[in-house]
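in:
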């Protein structure tokens, strides 16, 4: 059986490919998370804290400052790729070094995901831009 494609079919196929590519590009739009954020963190131990983080974004690179009553102050580094966000910092609590990692998804005004507190356990977080 032979299959023939005429010019109209070829043009329609090309248009569908272009439109699909446009949808893919839109899904990969850059999200700007620069600004001041209030986070709500829930840990495995059942505690809830409300730290703040100020984020500056340069392309996919994130830098900023974290402030919390429980963890203190720290400089933050991280990345955002599409909607996937991750930022981390190191702190010392009562002589114990701790590497903290936030990872999840973000929109320009909200974020949520998981927090890793090293040997102290894990938790979840939500955040809203001020």
């Amino acid at each position: 059986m032979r299959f023939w494609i005429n010019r109209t079919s070829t043009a329609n196929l090309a248009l569908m490919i272009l439109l699909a590519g446009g949808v893919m590009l839109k899904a990969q739009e850059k999200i700007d998370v620069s600004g001041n954020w209030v986070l709500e963190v829930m840990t495995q131990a059942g505690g809830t804290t409300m730290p703040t983080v100020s984020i500056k974004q340069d392309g996919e690179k994130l830098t900023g400052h974290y402030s919390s009553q429980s963890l203190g102050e720290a400089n933050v580094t991280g990345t955002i790729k599409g909607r996937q966000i991750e930022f981390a910092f190191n702190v010392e609590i009562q002589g114990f070094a701790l590497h903290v990692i936030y990872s999840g998804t973000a929109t320009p005004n909200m974020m949520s995901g998981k927090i890793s507190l090293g040997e102290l356990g894990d938790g979840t977080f939500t955040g809203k831009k001020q």
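note: Helices lie at 7-27.
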